[in-house]
Write a structure and sequence with these properties.
single chain; alpha/beta; Rossmann fold; 5-stranded parallel beta sheet; 32% helix; elongated; DNA-binding response regulator; CheY-like_superfamily; DNA-binding; DNA binding
Length: 244
């Protein structure tokens, strides 16, 4: 079985440097989800694609800096950050530390330093987020769930959850406004959620039954999201709907 590639978003306003980074990362076996020159674009991209690592220029020339971009992203997504910087002054370094980056890469960089830094960060992600081992990051009560986000447990009402999608070895919990990446498998989360509210409809999806908008033969819709219905899960879904 082919090993899943680690996905990386490059946020760099020098397109020559960005293109060089993309070529080198791809040659090293990583998946580049995008090359973006502006922080505002990065915030939107992360919400829609949830890369596993951010490679972020610390001094973006757009409306918001790399540090401000990282802070905006961290409001809804907990993604490891590696800063690219040609500026090593103490003030910038202290501001960057507030976002708890995994590493800094100084420009100009070479392929070996890039390779080693990314490899170390990937290993740290594996150590921090071993699938199914951090279930203490999730606490489900009768009408709410607490999830660990940005180092603290945040409350989320179960009724606000639209659906949950498997994301490689993790889960992405979707609400109308925010996405949370959880460090457990879909199966583990399924066992903790109340079965009268949530049902698995596909090997990659659990839905909140009360948020179902459209039910068709082979798919359903919640909001504008089209979710496939797996053949082996259809009977359970119909059975649950009859009891709602």
């Amino acid at each position: 079985m082919e090993k899943e590639k680690v996905s990386i978003l490059i946020v760099e306003d020098d397109m020559i440097i960005a293109a060089n980074l993309s070529i080198q990362l791809t040659s090293l076996g990583y998946e580049v989800t995008g090359i973006l020159p502006r922080g505002e674009e990065a915030v939107k991209h992360v919400r829609e694609n949830a890369p596993q690592i951010l490679l972020m220029d610390i001094n973006l020339k757009g409306a918001i800096s790399g540090i401000e971009t990282a802070k905006a992203i961290q409001k809804s997504n907990d993604i490891p950050i590696i800063y690219l910087t040609a500026n090593s002054d103490d003030v910038t370094f202290e501001k960057a530390k507030e976002t708890h980056p995994k590493a800094f890469i100084t420009k100009p960089f070479n392929k070996l330093s890039l390779q080693r830094t990314i490899a170390l960060v990937v290993e740290s992600i594996k150590d921090d987020k071993e699938p199914g081992q951090n279930i203490q990051d999730i606490e489900v009560l009768e009408d709410r769930i607490f999830v660990r986000h940005n180092g603290r447990m945040e409350k989320l009402l179960l009724e606000d959850i639209l659906y949950i999608e498997a994301d490689r070895n993790y889960c992405t919990l979707i609400t109308a406004n925010v996405k949370y990446m959880l460090t457990c498998t879909l199966k583990v989360l399924e066992e903790k959620l109340p079965k009268h509210k949530f049902v698995r409809v596909h090997r990659s999806y659990i839905i909140n039954i009360s948020r179902l908008d459209i039910l068709a033969d082979g798919h359903l819709e919640i909001g504008r999201k089209v979710i496939p219905i797996g053949k082996s899960y259809k009977g359970m879904l119909l059975s649950r709907l009859r009891t709602v």
